[in-house]
Design goal:
The protein has three helices and four strands. The chain has about 80 residues and is of the alpha+beta class. A hairpin with a 4-residue loop joins strand 2 and strand 3. The longest helix has 5 residues. One iron/sulfur cluster binds next to helix 1.
Length: about 80
């Protein structure tokens, strides 16, 4: 699952803090930061940011589930029951 990250152009306006349903956005040293462990990638913060300072990035788990390795189809490989 991707997570949200805040870029250096954040102006610390705090608009994103109030809308985050998991309270994952905190004031950092020079800009706001996101706790990627609790962020569930809803994207609401990115929608409200007036500076376009929030982006969604892939995590290691996303690479494992990439299209190069598609999950097997449901029921694939199972013998069919004859009636
Ligand atoms: S993507 Fe959703 S959960 Fe993650 S920081 Fe933004 S508002 Fe919060
Ligand atoms: S809404 Fe955007 S500019 Fe405002 S604090 Fe959040 S990331 Fe920074």
């Amino acid at each position: 699952m991707p997570v949200a990250i805040i870029r250096p152009n954040c102006t610390s306006c705090e608009d994103c803090v109030d809308v985050c349903p998991t309270k994952s956005i905190f004031r950092g040293v020079d800009r706001f930061v996101i706790d990627t462990d609790s962020c569930h990638a809803c994207g609401i913060c990115a929608q409200v940011c007036p500076e376009d300072a929030i982006g969604m990035v892939a995590t290691e788990g996303d690479k494992e589930a990439s299209p190069e390795k598609p999950a097997p189809e449901k029921g694939a490989g199972r013998p069919r029951k004859s009636q």
